[in-house]
User: Fold this.
Amino acid sequence: MTLFTRVSVLIFCCYSLALSLLEACQVPVFRYALERWSADKYELAVFSKGELTEAQQSLIDEIGDDVNLEVVVIDIGKMTESDHARYGNVNVPEGSIIGHLYYPWGVGKGNPFLNVDDPLWNGNLTKETLNRIINSPARKAILEKIISGESAVWALIESGDEAKDKDAETRLWKYLNEVIKFIEIPDGVVGPGELDRVATGEVDVEDVLRSTIPLKISFDVIRIKQNDPKEKLFLKMLTSFVPQLIEESPDEPLIFPIFGRGRTFDGIPASIMSEKLMLEACSYLCGACSCEVKRENPGIDLIMNTNWTKFLVGSEIIVDKVLPPLEGVGDLVGSDTRFPDFSTVPPSETLSGSSDLVSEDEITSDQIDSLLEPKIGQSSLNRVIGICCALVLGALVIFTVFLKRSP
Assistant:
């Protein structure tokens, strides 16, 4: 073996070690989003003619702090040039207030099909219209399912054709029941009752759950009628950020996964839904959170009216162990040959494996804050070692180039 070959092998080994040690946070994406990603705020611009009346102010006050909505009140008689540039000319009938609802600013970033300057909704702001902005039966049902421990709730927007809608729901359940057999909770997730392991440096604080909501691989489905007036604004939130989806699939059911604090990503037309595609999407949702920065992950937040902090305590940790985990799921819809050929996979029974139940104490915000102080635990040490290996890798590359160029 020549010196160059030996050095090359060593470089490869160091590179492999560095990659293996620079691990992602082991908390699944769906749980990380629930516990640590605050929902982006929509903007509700409220236009009045003069000062708000007591009744109008009371209506706005009803919004409260639990909903991810930022209210901006604007007197049309005092609009600035920048206000006119942002909102245009707004006509407010006497005695009324007009509302314009806008997506969070980040939604339109990089989306050539969406003009974020156009309101998602506009109209007379009344108690009824405000309630439909911040609440709907479907969102309440989704909230209950997420808080009960569902990894994600798949919202199926009906096409209006009962045969198509029923077929889409049947296939969706079939695929979910199949792909769940190939996914498991990432190793290394630590329950909130094991905080002493962080203090001793055994685990990293990023791998510790911050609530005792059941942790499990489980999905549910909810159907929403396309023409339901109570869901009209919710459906606009779901579909308007991907208008090309409606244009290209106008007469078929659409499926959206909803997880975390009401987060979703691009919907899936029923016509392209497949077991492999569902496996990719579910593997992303249930895989280790490779990037803790919310902006680097796909999706948008929907308006949800709830105090999430209140729900993030007081249950049990359930870790369902299924088959060995799939590794490195990347693009949600890209072609990837790492997944099994389902035509060759023998049929098996629906997931019903035993669960390990561990009672955990509730975690407090003070405990979390104290643990966020700098500590070098095992995972942190691994990252440090990984960086050192990367530096060694660079040095060896330079050394190798020098040897090859030496006479």
In short: The CA atoms of residues 278 and 324 lie 18 Å apart. The chain has 14 helices and 14 strands. The chain has a mean pLDDT of 76.
